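yo

u said u wanted the structure for the complex thing, so here. seqs first:
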Amino acid sequence: MEKQKSKFIVNSKKLGFFGDVVEKCYVLLDNKKVKWMVFAAILALAILFPLISTNYWISVMQNAMFFMLLALGLNIIVGYTGICNFGFAAHFAIGAYVTAILIRTFEWNFWLTLPISLVASIIVACIVAGPTLRLRSDYLAIVTLGFGEIVRITARNLQITGAASGLSGISRPELFGIHLTTISHWYYVFLALVVLYIIISNRIKNSRFGRALEYIREDEDAAMAMGVNTAKFKLFAFIVGAVMGGLAGSFFTVRMGAISPQSFQFIMSANILLAVVLGGMGKIPGVLIGAAFIAIFPELFRDIPFIGTARMLFFGILLVVVMIKRPQGLWPERRR
Amino acid sequence: MLHNSMTEKQLYANIKSGGENSLFTTYEIIFQQLINGLIQGSFYALVALGFSMVYGIIKLINFAHGDIYMTGAFISFVAFSIIASFSEGVVGVVLAVIASMLLCAAIGFSIQRIAYKPLFDAPRLSLLITAVGVSLILQNTVMVITNGQFMFFHSAIDNMAGVRFGENIGISFLEIAMMLITAVLMIILTLFISKTMWGKAMRAISTDKDACRLMGINVSKVIGLTFMIGSALAAIAGGMAVIYYGQVHFFMGYIIGMKAFTAAVIGGIGSIPGAMVGGLLLGLLEAAGTQLIGSEWKDVFAFGILIAMLIFRPNGIFGKTTIERM
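structre next:
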């Protein structure tokens, strides 16, 4: 069908000046040596950052990296596969609450709660997506939205999740004999996680699984006709994304030491979605830039009276403008 | 509206205490919840109509629709505070709601033109994400204006005046009027869809947009009209909600948007009578759910119904069984 043609991949040459710059970058990055040098430089910069910066900016960057984790998770679902998830905060909430409850109530070691959090994320993803993925694609949008609310309201009403005030006093874990207490410790933990998530995303993208997902995004019917088990792959993608969100939630819990239902509102899901859409769905560098923007923007404009409060209004406008004018996001995919 | 929430709490306390120091008899509880359910259901039905019409015609889940309801409530509130200086009674309230209806129709039309129309031919995901963006814009515009506060509404209409059937139960004139207005609007809409040329065009477009274009129907005009009618209905629901509950908050549209979608799915999305029946049914089910498992679980209960419906009967009560074609 003509109108189903993807708008996500466009020839970057058509994009004018910005496109030229990106095209030049791509040509430059084609050289393996340059590519690794750029990566190494960025990583080195990230590692050295806490040594030259104030605590405030370290915590802002650490928050940005937390958003990157969530956005990379959602990117698997929305960016790679092209299915909706408007309640991503719920997956992050599942991981966060599982870890918090196991540490607080049952006094588990943090590292042992991670497998449980992973299993819980998988089960929940299956419950949400399993039955609805077979239906009309946009039903999933509303189911995920409703699910996001169900999780938040349930967390607010149950005693075990600490009701409206949430759970606090969650002890910080140890890693290699170091008690993770200072902000720099957490900066490095999240940096390591971001690198890990990038590697996972990259491996998925270049695998058989990733190609199947891309095919589904571009033309689901054709993919099905070519023998791709679309229902299975869509469910897998949903699960992978949910697990990435859930584990990020577990780390969020121990980093903050406290969680409450306030953290898992619709605004959170909308922010993560914006991070993915803004950077360009399916593109790892784009998603990272988008997430950094979402986290740093409010800090820059915190003290300016109008923009500070109207932040989400601005984000909403941005979302619409990006979808209409640049559906491929800030970082367009290279056409091969 | 205070007395209803009071009753709800008392009813809940009554259930908790096992009916021992019972304030109400079982019949009184059932009657009161029936009224609550029907009122809430009327709001759902009015919002669901817009949802269903838009979905029927361009296959878009318009996330911003719940926020149109909120905008309608807010505009009614603002309009009434202007009008109230010379007419505080029923006339003023009606004028305020009409003003909000007209403005919301215009807003709905502009949203369709500016945000959705350029993306009709794009993948569905783009349209859905845009709808989320529009929803954020509406919510946060009102949030900035109201500073995120609840706005309280006072009119000269007596919420308590009405027909009493006993010591504890009764139905107020306001409630009767609201149910009547809902019923009349639904009848007018049904007649409009089934009897007029515009209605015929809408039905035709929902079947095959391209064929309609070939037959000389001005498709974009009809789509615009659909958005206007849907938004006007949501604005009426919003206006009535302001009068009934007496408050406006920028986030009030979010939950009702999803509930209205649930109602539309129960009735079969795209079907006009389905949206009406679904709305009333959801209102009643929710009232029953509130009574049985407590009001804090009300929303979870409603979304549970939605997910169950989507799994077991995705075409709803009135929906036709259709196969998604390529």
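The beta strands of chain B are 151-152, 162-164, 170-172, 247-248. Chain B has twelve helices and four strands.
cya
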